[in-house]
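Today's session is about reading a structure prediction critically. Students often jump straight to the picture, but the first step is always the sequence itself: look for stretches that repeat, for charged clusters, for runs of hydrophobic residues. Only then move on to the predicted structure, which in these notes is written as discrete structure tokens rather than atom positions. Here is the chain we will use throughout the hour.
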Amino acid sequence: MRREFFYDRGIRLAAGLAIVVAIPMAVLFYFQFTSLKDIETTSAVVLRQMSSETADSMTRSIEDYLKRPHISVLLRITQARSEPIDLAFIEPVFNDGLTESPFVASFFVWAERGPHSNKWLVFDQPSKKMPDGPIERRFREDQALGQRLLPRLRELVETRRAIVAFTEEVNGRPHYVQAQLRFEGPARERMTSVVAFAVDAERLRTHFIPSVLKDWRLSLQHPSGFPRLETEVLDEQGAHIFTSRHEHVDRDVLPVDERSFAIIFFDKELLEFAAPYEEHREIWGLRTSYGPQPIAEIVSASTRPQLALMVVLAIAMGVGVFLVARAAAREVRVAELKSNFVASVSHDLKTPLALIQLFAETLELGRVRTPERALEYYRIINGESKKLTRLIENILDFSRMEAGLRPYHLEPADLSALVKKVLARMGTQFEQGHFSVTSDIESDLPRILADEGAAEQAVENLLANAMKYSGEAREIEVTAARANGHIVVSVTDHGIGISRREQGRIFRKFYRVQRELGGGPQGTGLGLAIVDHTMRGHGGFVRVDSEPSKGSTFSLHFPIPSANAFQGALATEGR
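Below is the predicted structure for this chain, in token form.
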């Protein structure tokens, strides 16, 4: 195999073509795979950055949403507007506050002095919807609520904080209450006015916060080709306030980023000025995720189709290179075989022609002294002429077979007589080569449908092949017998034999067995190809049984026709 690789031009050409194509393709695919890894790294960075920015942005949105009433309402109403209470100024401020911050259930105002002194005035959504009329009608006095809230506010005066916040039940529901206290003097020892608001705690968690987050997510851009970024908000006990996932909330997810924020209604930088938040603040959590998969697995899954496509493309290109290389190698081998064929034909033509010319000139010059010697020369000339005729017929038959123009005229034929006829015709050649030919032909073989000329040529080619490759052994056996619905004509020699690897190739055109005997060309390589074509044209087949150095047996299997096959037209053509 190693010697065949180095000396076979077809194999060398195929290997060179594969290397020339494979190296650039390997480099190309290497860079493609590297670029996929870079894409995965970049995609992971993008997903992490998107998650981080989304978590920060949503946290800021919630904090801005909650502190809006403090900034837009409580800080807008100065102490001068609340002492005494300036209802004409405060009403539009409260009205805008309820519109801008719908989660606020009601606003409160109270002052120690003025025309509305010591009255706990409430402005809420029903107040906003009241028709025009006296402004006092839209500010409802709630003495019961004031009697509960004012004592608690006065207790918080001791903290000396301007912002106070606590939880209180309003109308039987827990509310977050936040107040802006006004004091007499910088010592903050006595409270003189209050501006405050209350937020329904349950509605904030079930309606307002989820509503804000849903609206915010509508503007969120999701990168194509990746899972959606999901967000969740949970309270201190881990209960879900909001989730963007459509699946059940209990399904496991892998958080990417987590943030926490306090439920306060003012800027978190003002915590040191608020009471009693330094004791307890309700902390909610926000987390983002891409589902149950980690980012590394997500980006790997996104490039997996491209990777699979590249693998398929690489396999397809590899198969293509293999097919092209094999076709090129085959063409090179065919070209070499044709070249060898021309050389072999030239040699096989020159040898009989030289003998014919030599003996013809000898006879013409009258140098033959005895009639017996002249008769021998005539037989040699006749034998060489027949050999030359057979060679030319083989070439012509092969040419017609290649063009698909070789018809077979099938007629009733006696195969035993046909074999004997061929043996008799080649007797001179056997004598010249000193071959001992024995035959065992059954006498009662049934007739077959055959093209006698083609069948004779097939048997003759096998005998010539046996003579050519017999080596030092000069014995040939010919048998003809019935077997398994066929008449089998076998030719056995005891020559160089054929390896199992070559047995599948010997019926190809131009192929010749590589023998170790040397001696130049070994025939045209067409004999067995013609035999195979002939047998297939007769509906039969040819088989070989051989071992190296032990000889070969070639068997022609002619099918035995049925009883009515000879009725009707006897001359039918088959391909």
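Discussion point for the tutorial: Residues 1-7, 516-521, 568-575 have pLDDT under 50 and may be disordered.
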